[in-house]
TrEMBL record:
Its EC number is 2.4.2.14. This is Amidophosphoribosyltransferase. The keyword NAD does not apply. Catalyzes the formation of phosphoribosylamine from phosphoribosylpyrophosphate (PRPP) and glutamine. The active site is at C20 (nucleophile).
Amino acid sequence: MEKEYPLQQGMQIDKMEEECGVFGIYDPNGSNDVATLSYLGLHALQHRGQESAGISVNHKGKFKIHKGMGLVNNIFDEEILAGLSGEIAIGHVRYSTTGSSLLVNAQPLLTNSIKGDLAIAHNGNLVNSSEIRLNLEKQGSIFHSTLDTEVIAHLVARSFKDDINEALMHSLQQVKGAYSLVAMTKDTLVAARDPHGFRPLSLGKLGDAYVVASETCAFDIIGAKLVRDIKPGEMIIINKDGVTSRFYSEERPSRFCIFEFIYFARPDSVIGGQNVHLARKEMGRQLAREMDVEADIVVPVPSSGISAAIGFAEESGISYEKGILRNRYVGRTFIQPTQEIRDLKVRVKLNPIREIVEGKRVVLIDDSIVRGTTSKQIIRMMREAGASEIHFAISSPPVIESCYYGLDTSRRQELIAAHNSIEEIANYIGADSLTYLSIEGLLNSIKAEDFEYCTACFNGDYPIGRGTDKYALEE
């Protein structure tokens, strides 16, 4: 009997989802419109989060903030941006898990303590935030959100360090997890990465101004130049004295999230000296080397499978075709109560081109399978469009474990590869064959400098444990 893996309420796409993207700019001369540049930077990072966005600016020590629910271009307009003048700014786009899509959880957070004003925005997940939060509440702290970011803000306020930058560094020494953050004080822009460097964060320059962002694509849109990646355990302090680098943690093995290269990062971003699109092309080439198949065309699942499909076609010599059209004007859709309507939501976004796939043996390329629900619907549509064979090829290994470091994955019991063989998965999604890229092939495809990777979702090797947050208590 065919197994059913129902689509989880609130999950529209059968993918892992990123938590957030961050941006910051320090312009000592006030020659740039920092709010508009932050808006553009966040627009470039929109793929990292679509639930909410916000920008906080600092004009001569006075803070202003504007944030809201939805997409960046729906939250900000010219009038709002004109009212956000200043010399320093930080911004944030957020993806939230089910049940926490609330304005109170939008970032940046703006707090005040005896140490001064602090605006802070964060990307990732702290595995010990529940424990710290409980201890802080016992000491009288009152929380207004469910964000890990607010935990850090309370630690800063309670730190015995008088200087706010030192207090922030002291606070980061107490938390454990995967994060990149930007913060703003009365005269300083701060950026930091966790000691293992799970999440990306880069430093750039725009004339006399310095910028930081989750991805370099945010630099490209404003004309900034990449200086370097911020290092694991490093805190960058940018003020009138220039850029100061401090390390708040002893050196530890890097554990960069490999899904940034597989899926999350934009193809035009550069991470560790490696262009993401070229890395994905190499994954496709390696997949072709590992896969023995006779086919007529290679078709990507747009847009996540495009780069790998190009590489696969080049390596295999099989013709590359855009056999599925993606409707670029479709925004987020809401889950409807019947499976039939859910199926139509996929059809609105993706539509096979019959004239290309009919009668063809197709190698269908995508970057990952999480629950298998969307893959099953796409393959069914390809069959209906007349494809004679469908060989599904995935440019990453099977996802068998949940992530606790800032990615929104299903609980383990919902991960199709955690409980089924490759043959069983192929049968469920309706493919003639299913091939995953090996872990070794994946690692060999990425040429980023000086990186080691977190591959816990593929092999259960959790570098800093599971913690007590998110799905850990539900399994």
